[in-house]
Amino acid sequence: MQRAYEVMFIVRPDLIEEDLDKLVAMLQTHATGAGATVKNTEKMGKRRLAYDVKKFQEGQYVLFTLEGDGKAIHELERRMRVTEPVIKFITVRTDEEQQRLEKARKLRAARIRRPPAEAAAAESESPAVNA
Amino acid sequence: MADEVNQEVATPAPRPQGRPDRPDRGPGARDGGRKFFRRKKLCKFCVEKIDDINYKDVRLLGQFVAERGKIVPRRLTGVCTPHQRRLTAAIKRARNIALLPFAAR
User: Fold this and answer.
1) Taking CB atoms and an 8 Å cutoff, what residues of chain B touch A8?
2) Which residues in chain A touch residue B69, judged by CB atoms under 8 angstroms apart?
3) Per-residue b or e along A28-48, where b marks 16 or more CB atoms closer than 10 Å to that residue's CB
4) CATH numbers and ranges of domains, chain B
5) ipTM for this prediction
6) What kind of fold does domain A3-93 have according to CATH?
7) In this predicted model, what pLDDT tens digit does every residue of A79-130 receive, in sequence order?
8) In which region does residue B18 sit, left (phi positive, over 0), alpha (psi from -120 to 50) or beta (all else)?
9) A51, A92, A105 ranked by CB distance to B98: nearest
10) CA B80/CA A103 separation, integer angstroms
C-alpha cells in the first residue's frame, strides 16, 4: 500500500552544514532501503524553536516528502530515534489531504468556467473521469 | 440600520420612574439601544479561499493563536466550523514539531 507521507525533523543546531548533508543523505538511503521513495527533500534552515527540545533553543528543520508503506515509515522513524543529531520528528500522511484539495480545486475550477446550472451537471460527470 | 434603531426604541426599555423632567427625546434619541454594533465576522479561510491549512504555515496559524499559545475560539475569530476543525489539527501538529508553543512564557 503506497501512501504519501511527509516527515519533518529537527536536527541539532550545532551540526555543521557538511554533516547535515551527510545525515540527510544517510536518512534518505535508509528510507529507500526500507522500501520508500523519496520524492523531495527540503532543508528549511535554522529556526528558533517554540520551546526547548533536548535543551536546544534552535534547530535545523528538514522536510522529506516520501511515498511508501507504513512499514517503511516505521523503519525510518526507528532510525531517526536512534540517530543522535535528530532531536525531534513528525510524520504526517498527506495523500488523503491532497485528494481532498484536488477535489476542491476541481470543483472550484468547474464552477468558474461554467454557469452554475451547468456546474451541477459537471459535478456528476467528474467522478467518472477520475475512475 | 435606521429601522433597527427605531425598533429598539419602541420596545419598552426599563426606565426609572419619577424622572419626567428629562429633556425631550426626538425619534432618533438612543437610550437602551444597542450600545455597540458588531460587524458579522467572516471566516478568513472561506473569504480568501484558502483550501490548505498546513501545519508548516506558521504565519497563518499564528493569527489564530493567542499570546499565551492558546487556540483562539471560533466565536472570537469568526472561522467556520469545518475550517476551525482543520485549523485546530494544524495548530496541534505545529506544536508537536516546535513551530508553535504549547504554552508561551
Assistant:
1) 56, 97
2) 50
3) bebbeebebebeeeeeeeeee
4) 44-96 (4.10.640.10)
5) 0.74
6) Alpha-Beta Plaits (3.30.70)
7) 999 998 999 999 999 988 888 888 888 888 888 776 555 545 555 555 544 4
8) left
9) A51
10) 20
